[in-house]
Amino acid sequence: MQQTRDRLASFGGYQKAMRLWDLFWEDSQILLADFRGREIARQMTRCIGSISANIEEGYGRGFGRELDQFYRYSRGSARESRGWYIRARFLLSAEIVAARVALLDEIIGILVNTLHRRSQRR
To answer: Which of 6, 68, 78, 88 has the greatest CB tally within 10 Å of its CB?
Structure first.
């Protein structure tokens, strides 16, 4: 993944979201082997992809309240993704699920803290 030198590339939540996408790419190979897993993989493709996509869109629109709204969208997608990983526990190993949930918790924490800091500045 090639990153540009801007504020987006240095945002830890974005970096972790892109890492999660790479990991999900590997996880999806396991999910796609089962007919139930294919449906889970479809949902996860959308919600995991939207974590970083919403951050990208927010940065593309500016750095005001609109960015905050896209952080909120991203946080919602991260929470949804965490739920899908928990649901996928029948197909993915306990270690994979625990690692992905922990990474999602980090992403959610970064987004919550970022939103809190930004609101304190106003």
So the answer is: 78
Among 50, 89, 90, 91, residue whose Cα is nearest residue 71: 50
CATH number of 21's domain: 1.20.1440.60
117: Cα separation from own chain's centroid: 20
8 A C-beta contact, residue 51 and residue 17:
yes
- Full residue range of the structural domain in which residue 19 is found: 10-120
Residue 88 lies in a domain: yes
Nearest to 16 by CA among 102, 114, 119, 113: 102
pLDDT of residue 40 exceeding 80, the answer is: yes
Full-model pTM = 0.92
Check whether 99 has a pLDDT greater than 70: yes
Residue 1 lies in a domain: no
What is the residue-averaged pLDDT of the chain?
94
Radius of gyration from C-alpha coordinates of the chain: 15
Burial zone of 7 (CB within 10 Å; 0-12 exposed, 13-18 middle, 19+ buried)? exposed
Residues in the chain: 122
